[in-house]
Each structure stands twice: as structure tokens, then as C-alpha cells.
Amino acid sequence: MAFQIGDLTVSGGAGLAPMAGVTDAAMRLLCHEQGAAWAVSEMLSAKGWVFSQGKNRNALDLLKRLPGEGVAGLQLFGSEPAYIAEAARQLENVGFQFFDLNFGCPAPKITGNGEGSAMMREPRRIGAVVRALADATRLPVTAKIRSGWDADSINAVEVAQICADSGARAIAVHARTRMQQYSGSADWSVIRAVKRAVSVPVFGNGDVRCGADALRMLDETGCDAVIVGRAAQGNPWVFREIAAAMQGRTAPPATPVERVDMAIRHFELERQLFGDTAAVLQMRKHIAWYVHGLRGASRFRERVNRMYGAEAVLEALGAFKAEQEE
């Protein structure tokens, strides 16, 4: 079932969660093709963008898009409203359909600067940042939050209400605290509580690994949609599986050959976006995810990780595909 993020209509299903170093244009395109209803980019520092005057190569790479991508949001992070607003004014027309604010990243280098999930300890500042972005752009604004900073400060409901009151048109809830990072189990009751507390769409995140998980989260929490992060690494077919489950069908799992073919296509897209050298380095983790559990995967992964030439990697992938066909 479709829903609205402001004046943006998004088809029902599952979205691709933002992941640093992962959800670039290539990853987003492949997930969209397999049924992802929308996606969110890697996070971009608003302050860093403004200070670099748009000349930082890494930041510019985050803005790249590919033909065929579906709906995608550009994720910004920062704790200073003025920089968030200025970055939005400069980036409003680069090709994304909405802005997303990161209040969930648990990485020490981010939280150490008072950003990402460290903002969960400062709800009023979150409100100021959301309001500054909403006032600075015509695009819809969404926010990604966590359950809280730690088990003694579960404040997702309060933060979600502040976000909605400050102009956020949808809220994604990763049902873990910052101190959990990505460990332990997600507490879906937090998502249910947020959904009951706000009138904007709520997206559930945490421990959705398959179609059955997605259906269970939707049923238990009442959230409007689910977003998938780590379960999509090396597995864009998870969106096909979720879409099928929502229609009462079962989607076949990807075969070993399909998994290697997807790794090859992913690699070619990375080359198109960033050139051979960067693509080889970027794809090491993706290739490991694609081939995980296949016959000879460990040996193959070690071999690829020693390669620096694009053609050598492609040749190795071709040979590994032939092994799987046998």
C-alpha cells in the first residue's frame, strides 16, 4: 500500500536503510530493481559540505545517482541548525527526492562530535535541526532515530514527537540504543510506541532479515513500512522476498550463479561510478557478502582481497561463477 512522505508518494514495501560505505548509487539501483520502494544515501556531513564549498571529492561521490534508481533520500548529519539549513539550500536540486536526518549513527567518531545518535541525548537540539531543515527546503524531511542512548534513557517517543512537531514528514526508528550498536535484539515495542504517538508515517528498522520478519514487524508494531539494512548486504533479493510475502507469495532464493552474476554487475556499476581502482577496493566487502556460504567462498575471498586490478577481479569472478555452475 502506498503512503505519503509530505507530497511524495512512495509505493508500499520495504526501504533500503542508509549505511555508510554501502548505500551508494550502485547498491541503491540493485535494491530498487529487486523491489525496494525507496532508499537513503550514505550520510553526508552538512558542516563538512558547507566548509568544503562543494569541492570535497568524497562528498561529491555521495551525490552520484544512476539512471533507473527509484525514490531516494539524501541523508545529512550534523548538530548545528545553520549548517544543516545551508547544506540543504545548496543540495536541494542535486536529484534526490527528500532529505533524511541522521540521529542514529552509533560510530564513536560521529557521536564523539555530538552528532548521530549522540543527539538522542539532546531532544531540543534535534527539534531545532529538524525545523531548520524543514524551513530551508521544499523537499520533504524525514528523520532516523534510535530507541535512545542507552537502556536507561529510552526516549524515542519523545524525540519522534519533537521531530514530527518540527516538520519531519516521516520517522524511521532503529529499535536499538546507541550503546547496543548493532548487537543484541531490537525491541520492536519501541517502534509500536512511536507509531501510536505520532501521526506521520513510521518506518521500523532492526532484525528484519526476510519476508516473514517484515510481516511480523508490520503486524506487531503497526508501522507503515519496514527498512532493511544489513540483511541487504550481498542480498538485494531480500526486497523481492519481502514484496512477495506482502502479496502472499513466496519468492525463490537467489541461486549461486545469480549471486555471482549480481556481484559482477555490482562491480561494473562501481567502475562506472568511481573508476577501476576505487571500485576494486569498494567491492571487496560486497563480494565477500555475495559469495558468503558458497562452495570455495573463503579461498576465493582471500584471493580477491589481494587483487588491485579490475580485469583480474572480473576474471576471478568469472572463474568462480564457472565453479558454481559445475
Q: Can you describe this structure?
A:
- This protein has 14 helices and ten strands.
- The chain has helices at 25-33, 46-52, 57-62, 81-91, 108-111, 123-136, 156-165, 188-197, 211-221, 237-246, 256-274, 276-291, 297-304, 310-325; strands spanning 3-5, 8-10, 14-16, 38-45, 72-77, 98-103, 141-148, 170-177, 202-205, 225-228.
- Strand 5 (72-77), helix 4 (81-91) and strand 6 form a beta-alpha-beta unit.
- 51% of the residues are buried.
- The mean pLDDT is 96.
Concise account of the structure shown:
The protein is an alpha/beta fold and 326 residues long. It contains 14 helices and 10 strands. The strands form 2 sheets. Strands 3-4-5-6-7-8-9-10 form an 8-stranded parallel β-barrel, surrounded by 8 helices.
Nearest-integer average pLDDT: 96
Strand order, biggest sheet?
3-4-5-6-7-8-9-10
Radius of gyration: 20 Å
Query: Structural class from helices and strands?
Result: alpha/beta
End-to-end Cα distance: 42 Å
Oligomer: single chain
Secondary structure tally, helices: 14
Number of strands: 10
What gross morphology would you assign?
globular
Low-pLDDT residue spans:
none
- Give the proportion of residues in helices: 40-55%
Order of secondary-structure elements: EEEHEHHEHEHHEHEHEHEHHHHH
| Largest sheet entry | 8 strands, parallel, barrel
Strand fraction equals 15-25%
Give the helix/strand layout.
Blueprint: E1 3-5, E2 8-10, E3 14-16, H1 25-33, E4 38-45, H2 46-52, H3 57-62, E5 72-77, H4 81-91, E6 98-103, H5 108-111, H6 123-136, E7 141-148, H7 156-165, E8 170-177, H8 188-197, E9 202-205, H9 211-221, E10 225-228, H10 237-246, H11 256-274, H12 276-291, H13 297-304, H14 310-325
Parallel strand pairs: 3-4, 3-10, 4-5, 5-6, 6-7, 7-8, 8-9, 9-10
Antiparallel strand pairs: 1-2
Helix pairs in contact: 1-11, 2-4, 4-6, 6-7, 7-8, 9-10, 11-12, 11-14, 12-13
